[in-house]
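re: ur question from the group chat, yeah i did fold both. here u go
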Amino acid sequence: MKRNFIKTAFFIAALAFSAPTFSQDKGSSAPQAPITLQWQHADIMADGKIGVSSARAYKELVAGKKPAPIIVAVIDSGTETFHSDLKNNIWINTDELPGNGIDDDKNGYIDDMHGWSFLGGKEGDVKEDNLEFTRVYKQLKDRFDGKDAASISKADKKDYERYLQFQKGYETRTADARAQKEQFDQFMMVYNMADGMMKGLTGKDNYTLEDLQAVEAKDEMSKGFKQMMTELMQQGVLEQLDAWKEQVESTLKYSYDLNLDTRKIVGDNYSDVREKNYGNNHVDGPAGEHGTHVAGIIGATVNGFGVDGIAQNVKLMVIRCVPAGDERDKDVANSIRYAVDNGAKIINMSFGKSYSPNKDIVDEAVAYAESKGVLLIHAAGNDSKNVDKADNFPTKKYLNGKSCKTWIEVGASGDTPSQLAAPFTNYGKKSVDVFAPGVDIFSTYTGDSYKKESGTSMASPVTAGVAAAVWSFYPNLTALQLKEILLKSAVPYKKTNVTLPGSESEENPEGKKIAFGKLSKTGGVVNLYKALEMAGKI
């Protein structure tokens, strides 16, 4: 019984987190990570991993050529602009004078030197927020709480039925959140027992992996605890316990808090969905971990240490609108408009949610970007769902039934044919355009460090990096031409059998097998080498 629980606890933690491979103090440098670690750059023939062949492309196709600079907007949680591997590639608004408190370029945003945050105000910055589900439920609850079906007018009947559905969903979700907290607490109880025993057996409070491996475990419990702690240390889970704790606690504290009002911090008139000039210039964060990782994938500096971005002459415009929780439609729309108005040619959006109450204003912003020839790249989501059927906003499809023609929706792929479809990725033959590396992607992280992360949030900036690289060498391409090149040059794996994301179960641990070509429009993985070849012919 105990040994089974230890095994279960380990897998819960190991699947939830991956740890930094190395980190360093601010201002210092780290050794150059090998291509086996930065596998998104790899080539299947040269390196045995299904990357985007960027290392090969730079060596064989464009060596000696000078790429034109291109601005990529990273709409995310914030980006550490002073990171050693990013600071030289951060966009600078040359029309603005730093720190003078004046809107020098008269774009409506004061001292926006590197971008803008729509999550800040004079009193501070939003770190956590609730889910859009919670915000929609609160609106319905304020209207219908305490009312019975007999008192509801015919005009309100549909909304009342929706309220009842949301009420049931809210109860289920909050119960799940409490269960996850209990699961964490149970894991920590077992972990503390195992840690205490290993301290005793090694004779050290701060024992190493080598110390553990030297331990002579004589009974079943000590053997089980030794195995557990060894695997946790090898997977780097121990470094993530604080993050795991923060995650489960913040879910209970913020995600479903019906009384949370973060807009007091921002100071905008939230009911005015077309209000623009609010926020502050605190683009680094708080909670800029996700955005820092995304930015590095696109454009970390090629400088002989740390990691290399896929695009080598890129300027990263930092726009903060994604908190620990769901982004708000008003902020997303303003972020897209800010990016377009300030010169971004590519916008990366590694975020998403299941509800979009003000989709119309997001649609207007997307259409504006499309009209200006901007390429929008969006992560398909990490719910193992078919987004032909399940909602994942924002989306390229407008409310009027038309679609944005300069939008690319990206799923996450693994590094080998047997693991081509990431188990968490969303998919859709109609809705997802292409796949890109998104499993264990090594990139920049806050604290001037580096870390592996997985998600379509990583696959989207890989694609944005490929797009930026192609555009920098062929700047006369239109956004429509570039999109066509990226999709047509994607390396096809249509007939490769993969496990359908989300189909694994206890009864069927292998899951359902499906052709990779049924998971997206192209059935392919983006590839810089092929894209540059095609762009050269055009």
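okk and heres the other one u asked abt
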Amino acid sequence: MKIAVSELIVSFMERLGIEVIFGMPGAHILPVYDGLVDSKIRTILAKHEQGAAFMAGGHARATGRIGACITTAGPGATNLVTGIANAYADRQPILVITGETSTYIFGKGGLQESSGEGGAFDQSALFKPITRYHKVIERTDYLGQVLKHAAKVLLSSDSGPVLLSLPYNVQKELVEDDVLDAIAFAPPHAGRRRRPSADPAHELARLIEAASHPVIVAGYGCIKSGAQDAVAQLSERLGIPVATSLKGKGALGEDSPRSLGSIGVTSDGRAYRYVVDHADLVIFLGAGFNERTSYMWDAGFLAGKQVVQVDSDPAQLEKVLTADLAIDGDIHEVLNEVLAMLAQSGAKPKSLDRLPGHPAAAASGGQAKRTEDFRLMAQFFARLAERIPQGAMVFDDNIIFAQNFYKVAAGNRYFPNSGISSLGHAIPAAIGARCMGGGPTFAILGDGGFMMCGMEIMTAVNYGIPLNVVVINNGTLGLIRKNQVQLYDGRFIDCDFANPDFALLAKSFGIAHRRIASEAELDELFGSVDLAGSINLIEIMLDKNAFPSYLSNR
């Protein structure tokens, strides 16, 4: 039977398991939108295409499924760029559908044309560096192959954004509806796991048995592979302390006595000092040795230690560090093999004699002063961990406060703004995560970042998506002000600004507002406000001259 290409694209998305798509319609993509009317796929209208891309990314991160966004040609596509670049850096499986002018007017100066012909900008060239696969589909005779390759990339273990641009006339052409039958669809994550050989797992078990004070550095790869329980078992049975990367917070519940907390240049330094002072074996599990985790590639961090790296992405292995053992395999499977081998050999637990009372690098008067400067932020995260120990999703653009003050339990999920670390990420990403259900959801960001994405709150209002937007109100771009104090002798330029009245802004949105300037107001927030089923705008007051002491530039 013949159906329109626009209908086929909708069926393609349904077979991929896509449940929701975020975007903004335009004339050049309306045929696909019309096909979505009768689809089971839920559509969510964003306020800006960048917000739609961040929503798709947040949905993919929270659910592990394919995210999707859709826009029209020209500015609709260009407005996606930052969000898609973020998804590319984070290896998020995002299907991007964009419209295009009809092929027969390519090069003639059509409205919003992005074909690259006749002086029009080239959308394909624009997205080439930030997608795993992109295609302007100018004909239908190769449509099946394009969709087959797109599905393969989206369902692969090393995924990323896929962009399909559909000229208006092509969307309306008729094709056979059995085109999709030749495509091997599979549920997200099916068939992605690769079983490593027994030899490297055996070698890892041997290294753990021989070590006196091993340490695990657990990254997002542990969460992605579902290895949290295996990490916890290895830590508990063998007495191995666990630090996490920023994205890996919660890979081991940070309420565990063996948790060293998050490691990184913006952390309190406790995990760093333990590794440097005591560890003889450091096991990286799905953790990239990036700028934050490596303390800006500090050569002394791993000096004199044996290093193991386990990752399902071979491109990450020894990308920066030199490992004594590098294992390309699924982290969950590798750890299960190691646990079985250690149980069979009767390996004894390690001594944790150096763990109690271990001094943090900055746990001096300076750290105490820093905590006092940020007392409200510290107390906010302490209450968040205490009052919502299960089911919370936290999308965090600020990062530094949560890294140091938020103890992420195994039952909660923490999503720092990673990727390309764009301001304006937290609110739309949290909407994308929460739109299909879930527990209490928080978007935490500074007032500067809020100004980039605050209107997406109305997206949550329009669709009844519960959300807590936490704005750190200090009237400045904190990182910029910090750098200008530390590196430029307090020569301030373009860092300070006036904020709107957030109470009136919340009223105009039709949502609740809370201003937090004391611990008593924090108690009221967590004691009387519906943080699970309503939309709240919460501002936490902070002195603009209070900022962390770490240096951002080398």
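fwiw on the second one: DSSP finds 22 helices and 20 strands in the chain. The chain has three domains: 2-182, 198-345, 365-541. idk if thats what u expected
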